[in-house]
Design brief:
Blueprint lengths: L2 H6 L3 E5 L11 H8 L5 E5 L5 E2 L2 E2 L13 E4 L6 H11 L3 E4 L9 H14 L3 E3 L5 E4 L4 E4 L11 E8 L2 H14 L3 E6 L8 H9 L6 E6 L5 H13 L4 E5 L14 H4 L2 H12 L1 E3 L5 H9 L10 E5 L2 H13 L9 H8 L14 E2 L7 H13 L5 E6 L7 H11 L7 E5 L4 H9 L4 E2 L2 H19 L4 E4 L10 E3 L1 H10 L7 E4 L2 H11 L3 E5 L13 E5 L4 H16 L6 E5 L5 E10 L2 E8 L4 H4 L2 E5 L4 E3 L1 H10 L3 H4 L10 H18 L3 E11 L6 E3 L2 E5 L1
Parallel strand pairs: 1-2, 1-5, 5-6, 6-7, 10-11, 10-12, 12-13, 13-14, 15-16, 15-17, 17-18, 18-19
Antiparallel strand pairs: 3-4, 8-9, 8-11, 20-29, 21-32, 22-25, 23-24, 23-25, 26-27, 26-30, 27-28, 30-31, 30-32
């Protein structure tokens, strides 16, 4: 039996610092254990009290009559480590430290947290600064949060792990109000030892948990989280995460555009996508999506039938689904005929979508007939049933009607409750019909179900380990020519060019290249050359020398330095200009593809894909990145344009990703902007490059 299992299922619990006053925070853990029916041994520790109720109280941990599986430490930050040391010495499996005053408070707090970890030795720690955990499946409450004052909880298949204690309490109360059943709840908080990944890993093996919901502030250990998330995916348990800190205000570019275009939050997007985590876009979605996924039903497509007794609500849901990329087509002929056969009056509109039954929605048989016809229809992948004001008087009847139809089809069925009626929402959800008080919740639920289905079907993968020689590479910021030589070394096609020092050499190089050329200053210190007048395009060979001299003067006046070397490059085009770069942060390394040129950051039309450690992208993943761009039609022959060489672009993306994988941490930054994608059969060319090597 591992320590985390014993943490969730302790045979005995020591409560260090327990109070006899159930109204105090220190009195709640014992009170909650008793109130919710904990069947193990409760061992209060308080030298000033002989008994708490009928429970004997012990002077210290050493005096306990048995070794507790878990210790709840209610002492302040100055003394908590002493209790942790004593619990570890007795052989406890884990301790929960509720006190604040650790790393969240600064240097002295960090010292206390290190002291706490040292005191634990081999014993596992939850916290500090946590509200603890709750095993609702087995009614084991190891917490002091006031959110547990409620008399009863909805027990179900959704496990919740939060890095915020207060948010955990909010999720518990909100879920209970909506009828969403939870299995386990954990507040990891400062994560001195146990963290998000540990509990995702555990819940992946928990028979009572089918969906895992996460409130994320930061992922401290990306690789262990990656392993845990992939384990949950293999177990068929969707993971839904709400990540705070989405603002890009703190994102900074170092020397490339990519740093700004692939900010920290975009990296989380890419990371979550890679490991199969569904991202909740709002806090409400952190319950909306799991409640839908907990049904175990999977969404096969985007066609949705909307069954309503109120036209306005039907339109509202239809509009919201349309904004989210779903379709509400009219019924096919046989389905429309089956619906019309149910019609008993002149007011119902049963052969279009939304399907409006008006007051006939009060008739259970008609509702059942309509639901079953829509479930059986090949025109639809899912169904939304709208509960109007008429449902207020009989929420259980409405819920029962829908529930009776669920076994007839595996298609998802959800409900939108139009009036403010929490009791109807709760009744429907408890009957296995996820219900939402906002139309946005319906769209979020279907989006989450569609993503879950896509994850199960398999996402684009990774290539094998990258192969290539990395010996003899320089360190530091490379100039453009050096950067492109690095890219070419890994198979990225680059423009023809020559390094020159003066006007005569420039003119000679231009004649050798033939045709019109590009002239650039060459500097490792100035990346954005056009900002200081260091780029000139479309030059005749005979004009290159004079232009070099005028460029030298302009750059010196604007940048304070006179260039000593220049690049003469062949002119490339016409073609589509893209940007291809990489971004590395604590989460790992991601490849970015987007609209390039001088407008790269302005339009920010990008696709981001995270690399697995030591592996580049395969062609399938690279092609998916290309087609994800809003500017994809420009590559695909938009309005008569020649189709671009997409195959060559995919090859270049794969080669670039293999370079990033092979170089690993040595490659700090790398970017090609622009990479010209020429017409089909003509390939691609890297026309500019940035690279920084450690």
């Amino acid at each position: 039996m591992d320590a985390i299992f014993r943490l969730f299922n302790p045979r005995s619990v020591a409560v260090v610092g327990a109070s006899a006053d159930a109204g105090k925070t220190a009195g709640r853990p014992v009170s909650y254990l008793l109130k919710h029916g904990y069947r193990g041994r409760i061992l209060p520790v308080n030298p000033k009290v002989g008994h708490i109720g009928e429970l004997a109280c012990y002077a210290d941990v050493a005096a306990l009559p048995e070794v507790p599986d878990v210790g709840i430490v209610l002492l302040g930050a100055e003394r908590a480590h002493l209790a942790v040391r004593d619990l570890a010495a007795r052989g406890a499996a884990a301790a929960i430290v509720l006190a604040s005053g650790y790393t969240e408070t600064g240097g002295e707090g960090a010292r206390r947290q290190a002291q706490l970890l040292e005191a634990a030795g081999g014993m596992r720690l939850l916290g500090p600064n946590t509200i603890g955990l709750v095993n609702l499946t087995d009614r084991i409450v190891l917490s002091a949060t006031g959110a547990l004052e409620m008399e009863d909880f909805e027990v179900g298949p959704v496990g919740v792990v939060s890095q915020s204690g207060g948010i955990l309490g909010a999720l518990l109360s909100r879920a209970n109000a909506r009828g969403i059943g939870l299995s386990k709840l954990v507040s990891t908080s400062n994560e001195v030892d146990l963290d998000l990944a540990d509990f995702v890993d555990h819940l992946a093996d928990d028979d009572a948990t089918r969906v895992i919901a996460l409130y994320v502030e930061t992922i401290r250990n990306p690789e262990t989280f990656r392993a845990a998330a992939l384990k949950a995916a293999r177990a068929g348990k969707p993971v839904v995460a709400f990540k705070i800190g989405r603002s890009e205000a703190g994102a900074r570019a170092a020397v490339s555009h990519t740093g700004a275009m692939a900010g920290a939050d975009r990296m989380y997007d890419a990371f979550f996508r890679q490991v199969g985590v569904i991202r909740a876009r709002t806090f409400d979605e952190l319950l909306d999506i799991p409640s839908a996924l907990a049904t175990g039903r999977r969404l096969a497509g985007r066609r949705v039938a909307i069954l309503t007794s109120t036209g306005g609500a039907g339109t509202l849901v239809s509009d919201e689904l349309g904004m989210a990329g779903f379709d509400a087509p009219a019924p096919d002929g046989p389905t429309a005929e089956a619906l019309r056969a149910l019609q008993t009056g002149d007011h119902a509109v049963l052969d279009r979508n939304p399907i409006d039954v008006t007051l006939a929605g009060l008739k259970p048989d008609l509702m059942k007939g309509a639901i079953r016809a829509l479930q059986a229809s090949p025109s639809y992948d899912a169904l939304v049933v709208i509960a109007g004001s008429s449902s207020l008087a009989m929420p259980e009847l409405v819920a029962g009607v829908i529930q009776d139809c669920l076994p007839d089809s595996p298609k998802p069925v959800i409900a939108y409750v139009s009036p403010h009626a929490p009791e109807v929402v709760r009744a429907l959800t408890r009957h296995g019909v996820p219900a939402f008080a906002a139309a946005e919740g319906c769209a979020a639920a279907f989006r989450g179900m569609l993503e879950a289905s896509a994850r199960e079907a398999g996402e684009p993968g990774v290539a094998g380990p990258a192969a290539g020689a990395i010996d003899g590479l320089p360190s530091g910021s490379l100039d453009e020519h050096e950067a492109k030589r690095l890219f070419a070394r890994f198979g990225v096609p680059c423009v023809r060019e020559a390094v020159v020092a003066g006007p005569a050499q420039a003119e000679h190089a231009a004649r050798e290249l033939g045709g019109r050329v590009v002239l650039k200053m060459l500097s490792a210190a100035i990346t954005h050359k056009s900002d200081v007048g260091g780029v000139a395009v479309d030059l005749e060979p005979e004009a290159v020398g004079a232009r070099l001299e005028s460029m030298a003067r302009e750059v010196e006046s604007r940048a304070g330095v006179r260039p000593e070397r220049y690049l003469v490059q062949e002119m490339v085009g016409p073609g589509v200009e893209l940007i291809l770069g990489m971004r590395r942060d604590a989460l790992g390394c991601a490849i970015l593809l987007g609209m390039g040129g001088i407008a790269a950051e302005l339009f920010n039309d990008t696709s981001l894909c995270m690399l697995s450690p030591g592996q580049g992208l395969d062609r399938q993943a690279a092609a998916a990145m290309v087609r994800e761009l809003k500017s994809w039609p420009l590559l695909d022959g938009y309005r008569g344009r020649p189709r671009a060489d997409v195959e060559a672009l995919v090859d270049a993306i794969v080669a670039f990703s293999e370079m990033a994988a092979q170089l690993g941490d040595r490659l700090v930054e790398a970017e090609i902007n622009p990479v010209f994608v020429l017409p089909r059969g003509q390939g691609v060319r890297a026309a500019d490059g940035v690279a920084v090597l450690a």
